[in-house]
Amino acid sequence: MHAHPHTADLAAAEGSGNAAGSGSWDLVGTEGRGGSVAVAERPYVDTDGTGEGGDDTLVLDIGEDVGALVLYTAESVLGAEIEVSPDVDGAHRVHTMVRRRRMGGQQLCAGVYPELRQGTWRIFGLDDRVIGTVVIRGGQVAEFHGDACRSA
User: Fold this and answer.
1) 58-73: pLDDT as tens digits
2) What are the pLDDT digits (tens) for 7-42?
3) Residue among 143, 140, 134 nearest 65 (CA)
4) Which DSSP state fits 20?
5) Residue 12, SS3?
6) Could you give the CA distance from residue 45 to residue 104 in angstroms, rounded to a whole number?
7) Helix (H, G, I), strand (E, B) or coil at 131
8) Which residues pair with 7 in a beta bridge?
9) What is the edge-to-edge ordering of all strands in the sheet holding 81-86?
10) Gap between the Cα atoms of 79 and 86, Å rounded
11) Residue ranges of domains in the chain
């Protein structure tokens, strides 16, 4: 992570489509890595599915040439680790676990990649095949709907 983490409140986000930046993410603050530095007003709490957990506040380290990705999935993917890599053969992969999250008044399953360099990234499914690509832009949160995270 870098010196100036940013936060986005998942509970305030509204996502749709596979395009980068199609959701509504709130960043707060006024300084940081080429953009806004946000201060977490509430600690991050991952819900257990009962709806009784705390607010889903995430720390995202974005700005200049670094963005983030939210991968929405079907509930069947809950607990799985999904890998992403730059869109270059043999590139190093990073992964995150799909967890139950709250967004507005509903619960959903999503994996969050809080710090990815800008560029095109491959998303690998449960079968280790590419299920899609997403463009990461510095200072922005991209979204991808992976459904069951399996190749066609």
Assistant:
1) 788 899 999 999 999 9
2) 343 433 333 333 344 343 433 332 333 433 333 333
3) 140
4) B
5) helix
6) 15
7) strand
8) 59
9) 94-97, 81-86, 119-124, 130-136
10) 23
11) 6-147
